User: Which sequence fits this backbone?
């Protein structure tokens, strides 16, 4: 963006913006694995101070083909929200199933301080959260993870679980073999030992961790009861909105269930299949030590992941910490900033003496 | 923004963005009065199809110094939301009391199609809505408007009321004389006949329309009962959140009250002073003819304005119609768009072969 000199917005009015290209550059500068490890630390720090947050279930607008959601949260210093859509049919039409962007603001004056793409960032924070939870709940010395559903989230999960939990062997299955080939190609290049499987049953054989991450919006049974042996940790990602689940109810009845925010998970998660008073454990309490995590080697632990606003808040904080010095971002003229804050109309009038359009357009 | 050739995002991934500078240029190209008149037509069209919208009270995050709100709504084709803050103390520290931005999206695939500044646009849509309502409710041949509160919204209200209701004489009062001087200077330059007043009482003398638009967050009585004569239309703008009202309760008891969305106005508007079953008339029903507006020359009509998401939706639609051909906007690389939508990880990996940072930075 080029702005004419005498309309130059002040620093106050310029908002740091992280484009997709800059986000990829930021991630690749440290590497996705280290990036997710550092991001997980931010998430863990925020989970440990859970009561400090202003929390609300996300605000969803459902339509025939998908959902658009706003996910706000705030602490005393910052307010953050994410815009995210979920449209399972998009993928068949060449669009992303999930796209997202987010904003971090100052609570003190309400001004946004960061606008960032979050399609890539959401993939990273979802995997970072799963692996962080895995660090607390997965069986010790786990090496093998089954991955059912090999879409856009799959590789991020694998890389995060290796970084934080030591997983290095993967058993992949997807109802679309092309998805499995894509994931296997990408993950082999990352040095994983990979077995591609012909069924979900085959994928779960010998796995200590089972990740389900499928896209179809239906009450599916990606996992049936017979596929889940004693001591396994289930990382259930895909069941994340009303009418979209992946696990047979019998598995839930055998598992110790861990959730982010019960008020939201009971609506959106696997536990929408259970009664509203079915016991669940809040992850933040596991992290502070107030509640027990895995209690023995034979217990089945289940992370009923739906994705909560605080994880996005942590991701926004983390990105902001990386762009404060001006790196990896552009500056957007998004906030009107008249010399006299009450003279918005005068600012508009004075803009009439600006040079004709075209100067900006040349730089676009 | 310059992006390197082999990372050039596709058209799908580029989001039109209207900066503050481009918004001012767009408004000044047609003139603020005509812009608000055209915008009011969009608002009226949307109010007339009110039942088609997915409506919800805004999602507010309150803090000691202010509030940050998200205001979403959708019809079958588009989803829109606005981010807006309200921090009364900002003005004293050189910041805007209200800043805002908004996004319009496609319901079909969830992709954003417009990002725009809305600080200037909100000022325009608020005034356009008031004048549109004035067109329905103000006494015939009204010429004189009292304006109590001469802050950032004042001039926009005056210009919109002249455009749509024929108001050309203004009586201004603000507890801060500097605010009145600012408004008088700006509005004299627009050709209004102006009387600056020493009190609210003086301002209301002979006025057929009374606009209240003050910023302090308290239960104030900017208007007391004796100041409101028969037949007046009150355009009450400033009482718009819990604990912030401008009118004495007795005035409400004598007025026929019109609101945007009762579910929100009962929480935020002047009528938070009344019982939850106090009768109000929904403006969309006045516009469709389903409900009566002003019923006689002596009736006091009151627009208890709080600002509703559909007005922002209309404003987003209107701006989008003006930038579809590429004018008045830049294109932001905000939406990740891998060749294979399931291969987000592969896109990230391939970005490693991008040229070093710095090319973009030079163009910022």
Assistant:
């Amino acid at each position: 963006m080029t702005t004419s000199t005498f309309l130059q917005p002040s620093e106050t009015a310029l908002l740091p913006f992280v484009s997709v290209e800059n986000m990829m550059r930021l991630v690749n500068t440290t590497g996705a694995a280290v990036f997710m490890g550092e991001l997980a630390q931010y998430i863990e720090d925020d989970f440990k101070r859970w009561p400090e947050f202003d929390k609300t279930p996300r605000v969803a607008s459902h339509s025939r083909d998908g959902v658009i959601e706003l996910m706000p949260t705030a602490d005393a210093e910052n307010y953050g929200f994410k815009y995210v859509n979920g449209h399972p049919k998009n993928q068949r039409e060449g669009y992303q199933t999930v796209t997202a962007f987010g904003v971090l603001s100052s609570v003190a004056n309400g001004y946004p301080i960061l606008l960032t793409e979050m399609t890539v960032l959401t993939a990273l924070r979802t995997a970072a959260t799963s692996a962080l939870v895995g660090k607390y709940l997965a069986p010790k010395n786990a090496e093998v993870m089954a991955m059912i559903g090999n879409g856009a989230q799959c590789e991020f999960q694998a890389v995060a679980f290796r970084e934080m939990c030591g997983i290095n062997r993967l058993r992949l299955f997807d109802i679309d073999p092309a998805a499995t080939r894509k994931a296997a190609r990408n993950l082999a290049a990352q040095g994983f030992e990979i077995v591609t499987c012909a069924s979900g049953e085959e994928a779960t054989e010998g796995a200590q961790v089972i990740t389900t991450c499928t896209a179809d919006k239906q009450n599916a049974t990606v996992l049936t009861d017979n596929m889940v042996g004693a001591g396994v940790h289930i990382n259930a990602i895909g069941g994340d909105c009303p009418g979209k689940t992946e696990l047979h109810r019998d598995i839930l009845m055998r598992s110790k269930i861990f959730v982010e925010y019960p008020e939201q998970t009971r609506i959106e998660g696997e536990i929408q299949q259970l009664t509203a008073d079915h016991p669940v454990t809040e992850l933040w309490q596991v992290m502070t030590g107030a509640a027990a995590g895995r209690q023995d080697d034979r217990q089945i632990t289940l992370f009923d992941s739906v994705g909560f606003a605080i994880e996005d808040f942590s991701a926004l904080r983390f990105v902001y910490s990386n762009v404060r010095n001006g790196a990896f971002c552009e500056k957007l003229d998004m906030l009107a900033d008249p010399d006299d804050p009450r003279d918005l109309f005068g600012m508009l009038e004075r803009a009439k003496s600006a040079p004709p359009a075209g100067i900006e357009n040349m730089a676009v």
